[in-house]
Specification:
Length: 267
């Protein structure tokens, strides 16, 4: 699918005018251990606003654990700080999160509307719908040309449709930091291209920080501002062309990933 055709499917509410209020995320000396295993060892990363940073590495490298530690769901040592443009610490920003997969009984009659109502309203769904939550759901889904899915049951959605729904949900309210943990499993190639284009447009429109865990190396190389290769430690960090041409990356993946000189996400 050509970029222009993909672009038409993305409808932001408005062009961001003031940035997301976040400048830099500083992850210092992050270590995660279990009783008998080191999962992450002294990880240090600085991620800036407006950057799409993709975390790559072999299975079991600690990629998903890093996102969960940032969310506060994994015990860790080390620090994570958030700063503004003046390098002053700010309070914890809004974080949006899309997991690897949404676990639910596909035979249950849960619709996309029910999902949004549950997540965006304090009122139990069985006590009636919130008009405000309904409005927010429609607006957020419309960003991805997915408002037509509002009455669809979750169990009948395709992988690409469910991915759009989960991404729309993660953007309500609009976060400062978006974490995406391999959210495209079961999505075909056209859906993968669309997903990466949507994420790149989010970065450009809202100047937010985005951290993506991915196994799609060619697409990561095409759209990312920075690639971070992790295997318990940070092995490499830098521009896609520099990282994927490094002998360490070639040895890790058993091949060299070709990188276009012009990054496809800058459209």
């Amino acid at each position: 699918m050509e970029k222009k055709r993909i672009k038409k499917l993305f409808h932001p509410k408005k062009k961001s005018t003031g940035g997301c209020g976040l400048c830099c995320i500083k992850i210092n000396n992050f270590t995660v251990k279990t009783s008998d295993k080191v999962i992450l060892d002294d990880v240090n990363l600085h991620i800036h606003c407006g950057e799409l940073t993709t975390i790559v590495g072999p299975n079991g490298a600690g990629k998903s654990t890093l996102l969960k530690a940032i969310l506060g769901e994994e015990k860790h040592t080390g620090t994570i700080t958030f700063t503004n443009a003046n390098d002053q610490r700010i309070s914890r920003p809004l974080i949006g999160y899309v997991p690897q997969q949404l676990s639910f009984d596909k035979d249950m009659p849960i619709t996309v509307r029910d999902l949004f109502q549950t997540c965006l309203s304090r009122r139990p769904v069985w006590l009636g719908r919130s008009h405000r939550a309904e409005q927010l759901a429609r607006e957020s889904l419309a960003r991805f040309d997915a408002e037509k899915l509002l009455d669809s049951k979750l169990g009948v959605l395709s992988g690409g449709e469910l991915q759009r729904v989960m991404l729309a949900l993660a953007l309500e309210p609009m976060p400062n930091l978006l974490l995406l943990d391999e959210p495209v499993s079961g999505v075909d190639q056209m859906g993968l291209d669309l997903f990466y284009q949507m994420v790149a447009d989010l970065r450009n429109q809202y100047d937010m920080s985005i951290i993506l865990v991915s196994h799609d190396l060619e697409l990561a190389a095409r759209y990312s501002d920075r690639i971070v290769l992790i295997n318990q430690k940070v092995l490499l960090s830098g521009a896609p062309k520099d990282v994927f041409s490094d002998p360490v990356a070639v040895q890790t993946f058993g091949r060299q990933v070709l990188v276009d000189d012009a990054k496809g996400g800058d459209v």
